[in-house]
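Would you mind giving me a polypeptide sequence along with per-residue structure tokens?
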Amino acid sequence: MKKEKLFKWKGLLFACMWIVSIGLFAQNITVTGTVTDANNEPVIGATVRVKGSSSGTVTDLDGNYSISLSTPPPPKISC
């Protein structure tokens, strides 16, 4: 009897941990930054995209950009 209860509690604990882990992996990541030229001036209207992906955006008047990703970005982002 005790082994059955212990087995049920272990199963319930495993199911709860599995459900929580799915939620953690489903989070979006926002990558932000500023594009500047050689003179440290903001680049207006530069296209910023994630390499190997269709995700991209255009910089604003201050050279700032923000991209929301569903997976972690690669170590290199091309401009």
